[in-house]
Amino acid sequence: MSHPITDAPTPDLRIVLTDSLRPHEEHDSQRSTPLIERLVQDDMVINPPIVSPMGNDQYVILDGANRYFAFSHLHLPHILVQVAAYETGYVELKTWRHLVCNWDEDRFLHQLHALEVIQLAEGQHAHAIAHIMLRSGRMLAALAPVENTHGRNAALCDVVRIYQRQAVLQRTALAEPEDIWPLHPDAIAMVEFPGYQPSDIIAAARYQAYIPPGISRHIIHGRALRVNYPLSVLRDIHTSLQAKNVALLEWMQEKLAQRQIRYYAEATYQFDE
């Protein structure tokens, strides 16, 4: 059942075991390494990961895989999350497009052709695992002899690793080249992916058949931002999980009583990430 955007509920914030989270995508080292360095210095959790229950006290990470990786890397026992179940109707699943930046087109194409798991064909193809539009306007389809979503994910990971490791990966929700190229003068190509269903995301997490980083795009109506919850609480190894969640509820009640939580129904752009 779908809901109007304007009636999004108060965020369901919880403190859970870090080990109870399951990513559905590979982590992006370009993003996770700075996060690890920042967590060592920071005192607050700013934007909690978004998760959805997947049974047995486990959660699939919808958004925030790199934040989870940073917590796990630092062996923090607990993590603050926002729970947003797919079935509530407040979660939309879309895909990002990748921009390959600060690299050479010839080297990019050479390494794509060298991949044994795919073949490149000119133009658009209905069964392509991805389409690659070069800045020149040339369109290529990446074809792979895969039989299921897991096989597609593995092939896509090989494709994305090429530019993730050697170029700069930027994400965009824009679709039209005339909108994208002026904003990204250093981009040499745009990579577009087919869509996913929630069941694909859960299966990727459950069976560790990860999709590449930065493809799934979850739109959460009522997303909690700028939470600024003390990291010291999550680092604490002596206080029980139950006690931490009691304290979290009291913290939320105080925030609401002091009118310190503001809801914005409109889509926004944030300029201080």
Structural class: alpha+beta
Strand order of the largest sheet: 9-11-10-13-8-12
Mean pLDDT across all amino acids: 91
Number of helices: 8
> Main β-sheet, in a few words?
6 strands, antiparallel
Name the CATH homologous superfamily of the largest domain: Conserved hypothetical protein from pyrococcus furiosus pfu- 392566-001, ParB domain
The multimeric state of the shown protein is single chain
**Rg, nearest Å:** 20 Å
Low-pLDDT segments, ≥5 res: none
| CATH class annotation of the largest domain | Alpha Beta
Fold-level CATH name of the largest domain = Conserved hypothetical protein from pyrococcus furiosus pfu- 392566-001, ParB domain
Distance between the termini: 33 Å
Would you identify the CATH architecture of the largest domain? Alpha-Beta Complex
Q: Please write the string of helix (H) and strand (E) elements.
A: EEHEEEHEEEHEEEHEHEHEEHH
Percent of residues in β-strands: 15-25%
Helicity range of the residues?
25-40%
- The total of beta strands comes to 15
Tell me the overall shape: elongated
How many independent structural domains? 2
What does the model show?
By secondary structure, the protein is of the alpha+beta class. It has two domains: 5-93 and 218-257, Conserved hypothetical protein from pyrococcus furiosus pfu- 392566-001, ParB domain (Alpha-Beta Complex), CATH 3.90.1530; 97-192, Conserved hypothetical protein from pyrococcus furiosus pfu- 392566-001, domain 2. It is 31% helix and 25% strand. The chain has helices at 29-41, 65-73, 105-114, 149-166, 177-180, 198-206, 231-235, 241-257, and strands at 12-17, 21-22, 44-45, 50-53, 59-63, 78-83, 91-95, 97-101, 119-122, 130-134, 139-143, 168-172, 187-192, 216-220, 229-230. The strands form four sheets. Strands 9-11-10-13-8-12 form a six-stranded antiparallel beta sheet, with helices on one face. Strand 10 and strand 11 form a beta hairpin. Helix 1 (29-41) packs across helix 2.
